[in-house]
Design brief:
By secondary structure, this protein is α+β, with helices and mostly antiparallel strands. It has five helices and eight strands; from the N terminus they run βαββββαααβββα. The strands form two sheets. A five-stranded antiparallel β-sheet has the order 1-2-3-4-5, sandwiched between helices. A three-stranded antiparallel β-sheet has the order 6-7-8, covered by helices on one side. The N terminus is likely disordered.
């Protein structure tokens, strides 16, 4: 791949309206500690995503291989997956969502997708709060029902209200509970998790209303549906 390289020499780049310079600044902040980055093949797409390549360089301008990056608004990926690159780095992200993930068309499922998007964000926030207070993920044997329990961790303030992580568990647009599973990363330790709906048919796979929509799809829905 041909690289049109730009050398950035400082972490202090003033904010401007140029999306390329803003993306470079976001990458420098994301990779804080590196004073020099070399950028190449940067493209701004119609949906607002800025895609390109970067590598760390030393004082002699030497660096390793270029790696892809994606910047969109406050969202910065220094090591995007191939699925992220396929979705964000195109002028037709909705077609990618449909063809690669079975989700959409957006116009036909706007209300359902907004519903799922809101629920996934609320559940993710509650699970992260649970993890912060209990130093572990929600146990798989309890599932999302654990979020309805009052925290067993003493409140830092006597005036702090004691409450559950969620008052009730949301249901997907078809009235079904969301699925949850921890994701183990070696040694049986679960450091990540997935939240999902299996769509209208309640079974894995499918397209359109029957498509599985998971936490990893939340960034794609945010990109297409906006605020």
């Amino acid at each position: 791949m041909r690289h049109l390289a730009i050398i950035v020499l400082t972490l202090h780049i003033s904010a401007c309206s140029d999306p390329v310079e803003n993306a470079q600044q976001a990458m420098l902040e994301r990779l804080g500690g590196y004073s020099e980055l070399e950028f190449g093949d940067i493209t701004v797409f119609g949906g607002g995503a800025v895609c390109g390549e970067y590598r760390n360089t030393d004082s002699f301008g030497r660096g390793g291989r270029f790696a892809p990056f994606i910047v969109w608004g406050d969202f910065t990926l220094a090591r995007p997956s191939s699925a992220d690159v396929a979705f964000f780095c195109t002028e037709e992200p909705e077609a990618v969502l449909r063809n690669d993930h079975g989700i959409g068309p957006i116009a036909d499922q706007q209300a359902q997708l907004q519903h799922i998007r809101r629920d996934l964000r609320a559940l993710e926030s509650a699970i992260e709060q649970y993890r912060a207070q209990n130093f572990r993920l929600v146990p798989v044997e309890q599932g999302l029902a654990a979020l309805l329990e009052v925290s067993s961790i003493p409140e830092q303030s006597e005036d702090a209200a004691v409450s559950a992580y969620l008052e009730e568990l949301p249901l997907d647009p078809w009235g079904k509970p969301y699925g949850y599973r921890p994701i183990g990363l070696g040694g049986g330790v679960a450091q990540q998790f997935d939240i999902f709906t299996l769509g209208a048919d309640g079974t894995e796979g499918g397209v359109g209303e029957n498509a599985d929509i998971r936490l990893k799809h939340l960034r794609y829905l945010d990109y297409l549906l906006g605020n």
